Amino acid sequence: NWSHFTNYHPHDKGVKDMDGQVAKERIDFLRETLEKLSEEYYELDTPSVSDAEYDRYMQELISLEEQFPEYQTDDSPSVRVGGKALDSFQKVAHQTAMLSLGNAFDEGDIRDFDRKVRADTEEVTYVCELKIDGLAISLRYEDGKLLVGATRGDGEVGEDITNNLKTIHTIPLRLKEPISFEVRGEAYMPKASFEALNAERAAKEEMLFANPRNAAAGSLRQLDPKVAASRNLSYFVYGLTGTTLTSHSEALDYLEELGFMTNPNRRVCRNIEEVLAYIEEWQGKRGELPYEIDGIVVKVDSFSLQEKLGSTAKSPRWAIAYKFPAEEVTTKLIDIELSVGRTGVITPTAILEPVRVAGTVVKRASLHNEDLIRKQGIMLGDTIVLKKAGDIIPQVVSVLTKHRTGEEKEFHMPTTCIECGSHLVRLEEEVALRCVNPSCPAQIREELIHFASRNAMNIEGLGERVIAQLFAEKLISTVVDLYDLKLDQLLHLERFGEKSATNLIQAIEKSKQNSLEKVLFGLGIRHIGAKAARTLAQHFGTMEALEQATEEELTNIDEIGSKMADSVVKFFAQEEVQTLIASLKNHGLHMEYKGPQVVKESESVFFGKTIVLTGKLTQLTRSEAKKEIEARGGKVTGSVSKSTDIVIAGEAAGSKLTKAEELGITVWNEEQLVVELGE
Ligand code: IVH
């Protein structure tokens, strides 16, 4: 019962005239109180005071620590709110390598594992645990104090993200015994926090996180610990290094006594049948958990047997990860919606009866093109099976023809553009249908969206919805019009207030200072991705110089091929383009190269990772993507194997994506790639 804490009146004695001794006592009291309250709230789920009361204690502690800096410590609960931002993350070598686990996909794989484990022992006890879908984190404690917390990195060397980890309430800053060791566990974002975060981001038109794992990783990769502090992350410990205990199950109990949060759903199993029953049970119940799991980890309990079995270079022989199959659900295809892209390509999208799959509600799935619709035999009104490829991209798996009622209708692509009515064409060697009318309003709107997007002019507050609104209100019809927008025009619009309107005008104004490559990419020259735009900006320095460039000059640049050169020359030869550029210049756009953007290798998520690119990328070419990844310390390879870390799946990705899913490898879409490259 902690109620006596609440009877204390902190301001009985004015903080100002408090002497050092009294302050020290009060600080100690506040720290102890906050630690207890935090444990009640975050670990025991039995808060005894209101959030506001907790915040008052915290504020009082922070202000006392500010006044008496001599009493500041780095394990005070006040570090949980997140201190100063860093310039970069340091590298840390792990005391022992952070291995990963071998994968099992079915009962046979689990039985094989058991057979190998029992090669020269009859009886084995296993511990089964949930495989939490977050990111592996190592924590080093010295004399019971949290010293360093790091990401896995390449397994040998990770990144020091201690400041961010200290904001996680379920990571103890001080242990109940003064011991020195390293523990391993999983940092994760609970489902509810993930959904609240995405709802908040949607309201601000910010990019949504694809799943809780990405959201957790993104939060912990921020240099400013206040971001992590605001994200409600949590941590389950699942192992430790260097101990005199004799089994994993004892080790977990001990970690719990020390003050860590272990996952309560672990189970000691005396044989493989019990292990299989545990897997089956949790495969069915995973949806009930407040956090995402992607499988079950099976570990040999005895440390001496673990040691005897040893490890390969990548993973221990005493443990295995059973990966759940990608969740598949059935839903109804209500309609097929068509959209016209920036380059005129018509893309069909399935409009689905909303259905929850792999952590989020899905309402739409790309159907790519008519050929694929035919091949899958999809009809309007069909009941379909849906999954998320690589747990991210919604995909129609198959049609359940036995559910047909006869009411289903065949789908045909139109012959004319849905927006401007001009005749659609199928270019040679392409499956896509295109609208080739350069003044098609849909294309213009998409061009505007592209111009304002992150890798282009990066105009904050000017997302798809706002552009569509401005376009529909006829306030903008070319990118130049953006720079003519006036505050009072915005104030007349729905959903615009004084503040949002002022912010938008300021963001547009600020974009005038952008370096040349941003403008170039924003103009959407065919075959010129974000990387090529940077190369051109670097080489020519100004828009004028680039406008004068000949095809020969262009192809002489490393990285610029003849297709790109041809496209650039043709682009600038157009009279409308000349007018557009002159007009942008008149509006005060700089269009000069501002120097290289420095990317620190070790700060990058790509550092030490093996990456495979597959499918069609639209924002940058494959070779650009490869160079960018390599510049950040990643390796790009051609085929998917167990040692692949990330597969980047563009449009209509095929067998490599399937393989990645089978192997349980992280899959990103192009959007995520671009975001990570831009960070
Ligand atoms: S044990 C020596 N236990 O799954 C390997 N891992 O490759 C130690 N994970 O990224 C891993 N829940 O972070 C273990 N209960 C659990 C886990 C777990 C999630 C993650 C781990 C690693 C991956 C396995």
Structural class: alpha+beta
Supply Rg. 28 Å
Q: Per the principal axes of the C-alpha atoms, what is the gross shape?
A: globular
Q: Please give the count of helices.
A: 26
Proportion of beta-strand residues? 15-25%
Q: Which consecutive residue ranges, at least 5 long each, have pLDDT under 50?
A: 1-9
Bound molecules: 2-(butylsulfanyl)adenosine
Number of strands: 22
Distance from N terminus to C terminus (CA atoms, Å) equals 47 Å
Main β-sheet description: 7 strands, antiparallel
Helix content: 25-40%
Query: Average pLDDT, to the nearest integer?
Result: 90
How would you describe what is shown here?
The protein has 679 residues and is α+β, with helices and mostly antiparallel strands. The protein contains 26 helices and 22 strands. Strands 12, 13, 14, 15, 16, 17 and 18 form a 7-stranded antiparallel sheet that branches. Strands 2-11-10-3-9 form a 5-stranded mixed sheet. Strand 12 and strand 13 form a beta hairpin. Helix 18 (516-522) packs across helix 19. The longest helix is centred in the N-terminal third of the chain and has 24 residues, at 20-43. It starts with a helix and ends with a helix.
What key phrases describe this protein's structure?
single chain; 679 residues; 26 helices; 7-stranded antiparallel sheet; disordered N terminus
Give the topology, please:
Elements: H1 3-6, H2 20-43, H3 51-67, E1 91-93, E2 102-104, H4 107-117, E3 126-132, E4 135-142, E5 145-151, E6 157-159, H5 162-165, E7 181-188, H6 191-203, H7 212-220, H8 225-229, E8 234-241, H9 248-258, E9 267-269, H10 272-285, E10 293-300, H11 303-309, E11 319-323, E12 328-340, E13 345-357, E14 360-366, H12 370-376, E15 383-389, E16 393-399, E17 424-425, E18 433-435, H13 441-452, H14 464-472, H15 479-482, H16 487-491, H17 498-511, H18 516-522, H19 530-540, H20 543-548, H21 551-555, H22 562-573, H23 575-586, E19 610-614, H24 622-631, E20 635-637, E21 646-649, H25 655-663, E22 666-669, H26 670-678
Parallel strand pairs: 2-11, 19-20, 19-21, 21-22
Antiparallel strand pairs: 1-6, 3-9, 3-10, 4-5, 4-7, 7-8, 10-11, 12-13, 12-15, 13-14, 13-18, 15-16, 17-18
Helix pairs in contact: 2-3, 13-14, 18-19
The structure holds 2-(butylsulfanyl)adenosine (IVH).
2-(butylsulfanyl)adenosine (IVH) binds at residues 99-101, 129, 131-132, 136, 186, 238-239, 297, 316, 319, 321.
